[in-house]
Amino acid sequence: MSRDPSPRDLTATLRQVRDPVIAVECRTCGRRGTLDRAALVKKHGAAVTFSRLRRMAAMGCERLVSEDGDRCGTRFPCLD
What we know:
Elements: E1 21-26, E2 32-36, H1 37-44, H2 50-57, E3 74-75
Antiparallel strand pairs: 1-2, 1-3
């Protein structure tokens, strides 16, 4: 049985979030973009979590892995 993801639930999967275009943004850096859901499913499968997608989207962000922990502001508005 599928469940709706709760706000900011990065354990949600692409199977649960059916938006054709997934917006991604970083509150800290101001970067924004969109990801094509169909292309993501084809490449990573419908079971990929938003936590994994977040790490991929923020690859190279020095704030993602810092001495103070995760300070990266990358988020998916569809999970709010």
